[in-house]
Amino acid sequence: MSDYKNSSTDLTLHWFFAGLLLCLLIAYNVICHTIGAEIQINIDEGQRIFIKSILYAIAIILFPLTNLLRHILLRLNQTMPGDNPAKNRYLITTVITLMTIEIVGVFGLAMFILGDSYNTLYIFTTLAILGIFLHRPREEEYRHIIDALRSQKPHNG
User: Fold this and answer.
1) Alpha helix positions (H), the chain
2) pTM, to two decimals
């Protein structure tokens, strides 16, 4: 268990990145509230509904797809040979999955710019926050990577 003593501090950069993405979501909302009328281009409602429907479908597909991607990346982190430490491997997994989910938040900003209401912005923002929560850095996953890499060492040496 002593090998895990730094596992919480090892994830500081991971948590910083998750916090940065949350700040971006807040910034999208603040921008829309402060200069919303100036950035909206108000396209035709029919086109807007069509685009919004496509973006909702993409968002719905992105959630299980990101979950699958995370599962695959975590497994690769545990099995890929090399000298890349567990901390870096897990950071790459965290960045990729969180960036994939951040796209959903950008959908809300895009729809707002296209002339949609705050409601759509809030829905996509809430979905992105949910995604960030679901794919946040987890100490347990990180420890599994450490254990898997440690068990590979004797076989490689």
Assistant:
1) 7-10, 12-39, 45-79, 86-113, 118-134, 139-156
2) 0.87
